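re: ur question from earlier - yeah i can do the single chain one, its not a big deal. heres the input i used so u can compare w yours
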Amino acid sequence: MTPRPIRAPAVLAALLGGTLACAAGPAPLAAQVRVPGPSFEEVIGLRTAGSPAISPDGRSIVYTVRTTDWRDNRFDTELWMARQGEASFQITRTEKGSSTSPRWSPDGRWIAFLADRGDRNQVYVLRAAGGEAQKLTAVKEGVNAFRWSPDGKRIAFSSTEAEDDRMRRRKERYGDFAVEDGEFRQAHLWSVDVPADLWAGATCPAPARADSARAADSVRTRSLCPAVPEPRRLTRGEDFTVNGFAWSPDGTRIAFERRSDPLINSTSTADLWVLTLASGESRPLVAGPGYEGNPVWSPDSRWVLYSTAAGDTTSSFYTNGQIAKIPAAGGTPVRLAAEIDEQLGSLAWTPTGIYLLAWEGTRRHLYAVDPGTGRARRLAGTPDAVLAFDFSADGRTLALLAQTPTTVAEVYRTPLAPLRPVAVTDLSRQIEGWGLGTSEVVSWTSTDGERVEGVLHKPRGFDPTRRYPLFVVIHGGPTSIDYPAPVAGYVYPVLQWLARGALVLRPNYRGS
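and the output i got, formated as C-alpha cells:
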C-alpha cells in the first residue's frame, strides 16, 4: 500500500494533535485536542541532578538538583545531601538565585559552594552537620571557580576583572553591549583565608539587614560576625586570562591554565603554568602551539597530569585530544592512555591511580590508567552513560552521576573494587506512568561505506510491520553525542511526536 502524500504542516498538526489556524482566527477550544503523553511543561519541569561531590571519608554525597521556577520564569539549582543510610535532603535555599559547585573541605567538616544572593556568585561555606551558610567572599565581579587548599585554611578562586571607567560610562549612556570578539575582560587567581573557627558557627545577618542587626545588638554582631575576609591577588598581568587551576597536594603551588584571552577561538593559546605561593612567581610548565590545560596533580605533588592537543591548532576543536603527565619541576611530557582513541575528560589522580571518562559510541565509560605504564583499562559495572564522578580522599569510594536508556540521570555511590553502584536518588520516579516508548542504537552505511550510528526512538506499542512518520533531530556541537535515554529533545517535542505514533531518529553524524 502506497501512503498518501501529506503536506508537512498537516503532518505537524496531526502529530501534535492541534489544528491549523486560518485567517479568520484560531479554532474554538472545543476543536483542540490535547496532545497525549507528557506535556511540554512536565518535560521542562523535570528535576535533574548534577555535580556530585563525595565527602573525604566517602560516607556522604552532596549534589545539585535543578528545578523549574514557573513564577519567576527561571531554573533554580540548590544543594542536596545524601548521607549513608539516610534519605536525601535539601541543604541550601538561595532566593532569586542558585547554589552550585559544591566542594568539601579536606577535613570533611565544611561544604563550600557558589551562590548569587544579590551580589553575583560568591563563595559560601556551610557546616556539613547543618546550620546557616556563611559568606566568604564579596568580590565585585563575582567568583568564577574555586578550590580548597589541601590544609583547608585558604580557598583559591578565579574572578574576572572589573569594568574600567570607559566601559562603565558607555554602559550608563548606551546600555550593556560589547563588540563581538573585540572586547573582553581577563580573569585572575585570588586567595582568601578561611577563618579558623568560621565565625564559631554564628548566623550572621545578610548584607541587606546588617545595619539594623548591628543597631539591635552591636556588640554581639561585631564579635560573632567579622567582616568578610579580604582576598589577595595571586596572578598579575594584562596579556592573559586564567581558566582551570589546581592546588598541589603539598599546598605550595597552584598549576593553572593560562590563555591569551577568554574568547572561544583562543582555546588553542592555552598553556600550563605553575605559581609558587611563597614567592608569588609563575613559570611556564608546558608552553607551545595548541591547547595545554586542565591540570591535575599527582598525590605526591611530583607530577602534573593535563589535557593536550599535541600541537594541533587547526582541527583540535573536533578531533580527539590526548592526556599526558610532566614532572612538576619541568621536563619531558609522557603521553598516557594512548590506546584510547576517544575524547578523554574528567581527569582525576587519586592514591589508587588515574581515572577518566571517555565516550565509546553511545556509551560513556570510566577508565583507570596506570600512572607508571600509562596503560588504560575500562572499568566494568557502571551504568551506560557516566556523566560525572568524584572520589573519596583514599580513592576507594566514589560518587557517580550516570544514566541508562530507561532512567534519567541519578547519583550513585559505589566502592571502587568492585564497582557496585547504588542509587542515592530516585528522580526517575518522575517519569513513571508517562507511557514512554523505547530508544535503541541503530547504524547504517553512508555513501562512502562508512558506518554511522544514531538513536532511534520508537513509540509505545511499536509494530515493525507498520509504516510510521519519521522525524530527524540533529544535535549541535558538532562533537556532541546523542545516546539512548527515556526523555530526549527538550527544545523539540520528541515525546509528543512519539505519543502521536511517530518515529524519531537522532543521528550521530561524522565528527560526533
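The helical segments are 8-16, 40-44, 165-174, 210-216, 218-224, 494-499. not sure if urs matches, ping me
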